Structure formats: structure tokens, C-alpha cells
Amino acid sequence: MKEFFKYVLATIVGIIAISIVGTLLMFMVIGAIVASTEKEVVVENNSMLLIDLNRSLVDRSKNDPFEDLELPAMFASAKTIGLDQILTSLEKAVYDDRIKGVYLDLSAISGGMASVEEIRNALIAFKDSCDKPVYACADKLMLGQKAYYLATVADKIVVHPEVAIDFRGLGGEMMFYKDALKKIGVEVEVVRHGKFKAAVEPFLLDKMSEENREQTMSYLNSLWNQMLNGISEERGLSVEELNQIADEVQTFKMAETAVENGLIDAVEYKDQVLDDLREIAGIKGTEGIPMIGVKDYANAPVKGKTKKYSRNKIAVIYATGEIGMSISGDEIIEGDKLGREIRKVRQDSSYKAIVLRVNSPGGLTFDSETIWREVKLAAETKTLVVSFGDVAASGGYYFSCPADKIVASPNTITGSIGVFGLLPNAGELIHDKLGISTDEVKTNKNTVIPTFTRPMNGFEKEMRQKSVENAYDTFISHVAEGRGMTKEAVDEIGQGRVWTAEQAKEIGLVDEFGGIQDAIALAAEMEGLEDYRTVALPSLPSPFEEIFKMGGNSVRINLLKNELGEKYRYYEYFKKVSSMNGIYARLPYDIYVN
Predict the structure, then answer these.
(1) Residues near 102 by Cβ (< 8 Å), separated by ≥ 6?
(2) Fewest C-beta in 10 Å: which of 167, 245, 326, 484?
(3) What percent of the residues of the chain are helix, what percent strand, and what percent coil, each to the nearest 5?
(4) Phi, psi of 359 (to 5 degrees)
(5) 50 by DSSP, 3-state: which?
């Protein structure tokens, strides 16, 4: 009994201690938030503008109070850097005498190629507008291919002696689960329209279909050629020379080899890098170099760069994430919420134009249709330009097609005009391997559908295929109407095929090349606006609201991401499949434009 009370007392003390630590942690977080919101941004003379691309690159920065706090892994938020912060900062730095140059801190960029292209173009514009240098440095194990492509616009590229420069071309492996599922007694049944709709292939095949191989090689070659041409122009190496270097695989060679073949300018240790930066900033001796990150600098006042207040507003509405479903806890596009945001702007006379920024691989047809309707109505009353980010495919293209103009980076991934639905048959697993029996009661012949315990019968397959065909017909009809094409022409370039925007422009799916700033300028020009201001929507949660979003699910996801690293994407993929199964169980006719 004495031991029992000892353990009970220890437990109580532990609970009290955890409560005290938790309370102190909460006060620290709130204090840090208050301090950060009250702190005025100060830009020192002779500063370097730091663009830290070791963070996750996102379209739009957040008011996340946990990002820059040193918290335990389970509470820590992923450190992000906003494309909007980078573009705003580079535009302001041109006119700011306190900023002497740009310092790119590079490793492996987590964002997509279109975002990299936007930053690259903004850096080129920065260099063309002033005589301030761009300095790129990699001192964290590896300089990835996307990061290297971005670095090539710099006046000088340096790497640590032990950093590897990854340069070997574009490609990768696809995993197929058909045989693995068969071993455990599960068969995935698929209905789809589009011979190129490859999202379901891992469950049906043991290798890539010829159609998928064709489309994948097509867009990979388009992306690679875009990169090679850009590198060639900046580094003075021919495309043939670059391909030879890639074939020889630079990745596993010493950094000095990259200097010899012209990929980079120098191999330097940190102290040498600091000497370079002091020279750029005009700092003598061994004094510290003032650095200001884009997160702070984007909010810093700059003389002569502050726009006058204007009553004319252009709404910049962000649509980021999968449509209608959230698997990983990342951003989600909900049809009702985004539709309501577009509707509010459409009905507000102070908004003269709309720029819809789309970064989505697709999702549920229902939500895509809901958003499409609001985009169509908005385009009938206001100038509406869509800006594509890294990917605007399937459902992301679905609701974008009514726009007056579609602007994209040449290496945006888009298209994928196709539809699919899937349902796993786990009858063998449930009945034969687990020994679980099932029985049915029903008032009508087809009451108990769908079910995971048997394959679909002929009636069910026919019914589901009709649903998919109807959805596909609606999809290509919307695209035909929005793009001024015939349904036959859309079907010809549809079938679920994925394109780069460079290819999509040739076939009529994209109007112009450019980033989000180009889309805003185009919307203003189309509306005849010389005096305007932009308003980013939806409104971001305040830092205090972000605190209450840090629930158990976020903690679990942060732990998994920290533990699994790059392998988290496989967990995420299987969660998606599991979610699709659940949605089918509740909504038999839900289909996907992914």
C-alpha cells in the first residue's frame, strides 16, 4: 500500500509539473507574439536582403506565431517563406539605399518549379533595375537542382567545399501497389475517363502505362529544356555541355569540379563568404553584416515606395491545396468557402478586378463545380484574371477556365482534364484472411452499395461509369465555353493528359506567361486602372487565432513529418486513398478530378 501511494503521489506531481510547464510555455508564446506584433521593423544601413530558401516555399505568408520559436518538435510549426514576401521585398529593395545586395541562402528548395521561376524572374528584374549584386551561397550538404537553377541568376555562386551540386536531369520512380494489395486480399476497382489519367495506375498496374510514360516524358523534357536554356543564358554554357555534365552526374563529385566545369564560381568556407558580403555591403574589418529577412523587410517602410491610398481595389484571391478534402493537415480549398469569398468580391463595387491565384492538383468534382459557378458569375461582371502557381491541374483547371485570361509560368503543371473514381474490394482480406463474415439486409435490390466486401456487379459498374462520363462531359463543356473551343477540341487535348504551361499555351489552355505580379498588372491594364491597391483574400487568421489551431491533429502531423521526413509523402498518399474510401462509403457518387 505504501508503494501504491508513492506511485500515485508521483503521478500527481508529474501532472502538476506538466501543467505548470504548459502554462509557462503558453505565456512565453503569447509574450513572443505580443512582442513581435509591437516591434517596429528597423533596416540598418549597409544591409543585405536575406532570402532563406531552406524554408518551405508557400504562395502566401501566414501569421503563424510558432514558426520562429524554438519549440519541441511536437509543437513546432514548419518554417515557411512566402512567395508574396519575396516578390514584395525585391521590388522595394531596388529603391532602398540601405539595402546593398541580395543574399540567397540555398540548399534544396521545397517549392515547385513555377514558384522558382517567379523568384528567378524577380531577381533578374531586380538586377536590371539597379546596380546591386545578387550573391548565392550553399553551405548545407547539397545544392539541389531547382536551387541551382535559381542560383544561376546570381552575380556569384559559392558553395562550401563539402557541398554537393545536384545536377543529373529530371526523373524519378513511381511505386505500384497492385501486387502488394493482392497479397493481402484487396483489389481496387476503378472507373475513369481519360487514358492519360494516371493517378489510379499504382492500384491497377505493376508499371507505367505507355500513355503515362508518354505524357510524363513530354512534360519532364519541357521542364528540363526550360531549365537548361535559363542556365545556359546565365552561365555561358551550351545546352549540349550542360547535358553532358548531367549525364556524368555532378551530384557525387567534389565541389571543385563544379568550378572547373563552370557550374559555380567558387568554393569557400563561411569566413570567406562573410568577407565577400562585407565587401558588397561596404563594411570594413571584421564587423558584423546587417541582414534582414524578407519576412521582416516586406513590412518595412521604404521612402518613395509607399503607394498612395486608392479607392480602386484589385482582389487577389488565393486558392491553394487539394479541393474538397484535407489529408495531411495542409491547406484545403473548400467549395463553399472559396465560392463565398469570390461572391463577396463580385458584389462589392469597390473591387474593380479579381486575380485568382490557383495552386492545386485537383480534388472533388462537387467543390470544383461550386467554385466554377462563382468564377463564371464573377467573370461576367468584373475583369477576372487567373494566375497559376506550381500546379493548376484537373479540378484546379476546372474552375479556372471561365476567366478572361489565364497567366502561368512556362513550367507550371496544368491540364489533366479527366475524371476518375475508385473503390477497393477487400472481400478476400475480410472474409478469407481475417475470418470476418458479413451479411446484408435491404428493402430494395441495390440498397447496399457501395460495399468493400465484394466486387462491383455489372449494374454498379455501369452506373459508376455513367457518373464519370457525365462529369467528364461537364468538365470539357466548361472548358470549351470558357476557352472558346469546341468540345471535340478539348477532348482531344483532355483525356487526363498533363501539360506544362509552355505546352498548354500552344494548345489554347493558357493565354500568357508570367507570375502573379504580371497577372495583377494585366488585370489593371484590362480594367484601365492606373491608380489601385491590392487586397489579399481570404483574410488570414490573426496570430492569436493561430494559437487555437494548434490542436492534437496538428501535433500528430508535426511529429509524423519530423519523424518520417521525405517519406511522409507515402504516408500522405495512403491516407488519401483511405479518405477516398470513406467518402465513397458516405457518398456513392463522389468522383475526383485529380
Answers:
(1) 48, 49, 51, 90, 93, 123, 126, 132, 133, 134, 135
(2) 484
(3) 45, 20, 35
(4) -140, 85
(5) strand
Give per-residue pLDDT as tens, 528-551.
Answer: 999 999 999 998 876 655 555 555
Write down the H helix ranges in 382-457: 395-398, 427
Beta bridge partners, 498, equal: 415
% of the chain beyond a pLDDT of 90: 61
Q: Which of the four pLDDT bands, split at 50, 70 and 90, describes residue 408?
A: very high
Amino acid letter, residue 78: A
**Residue 236: phi, psi to the nearest 5?**
70, 25
String of DSSP letters for 264-310: -SEE--HHHHHHHHHHHHT--TTPPPPEEEHHHHTTS--TTTPPPP-
- Distance between CA atoms of 1 and 6, rounded to whole angstroms? 9
Q: What's the mean pLDDT in 220-240? A: 97
* pLDDT digits 0-9 by tens, 118-177: 999 999 999 999 999 999 999 988 999 999 999 999 999 999 999 999 999 999 888 999
**479 closest CA partner among 507, 441, 445, 517:** 507
Q: Amino acid identity of 124?
A: I
Residues assigned a catalytic role? 197, 394
In degrees rounded to 5, what are phi and psi of residue 158?
A: -125, 150
> Is 28 a residue whose pLDDT tops 60?
no
Q: Is-contact 101 126, C-beta < 8 A? A: no
Number of Cβ atoms within 10 Å of the Cβ of 87:
20
Nearest to 264 by CA among 177, 171, 163: 163
Nearest residue to 203 (alpha-carbon basis) of 590, 591, 580, 584: 580
- List Cβ neighbours of 291 (8 Å cut-off, separation of 6 or more): 47, 48, 50, 103
Question: Which DSSP helix (H) or strand (E) runs through 220?
Answer: helix 210-235
Instruction: Flag whether pLDDT at 18 surpasses 90.
Output: no
Centre a 10 Å sphere on the Cβ of residue 342 and count the other Cβ atoms it contains. Answer: 26
pLDDT, tens digit (0-9, with 9 covering 90-100), for 477-527 = 999 999 999 999 999 999 999 999 999 999 999 999 999 999 999 999 999
Q: Is the CB of residue 67 less than 8 Å from the CB of residue 550?
A: no
Beta bridge partners of 316: 355, 536
Rounded CA Rg of the chain: 27
Residue-level pLDDT at 329: 52
**Whats the size of the chain, residue-wise?**
594
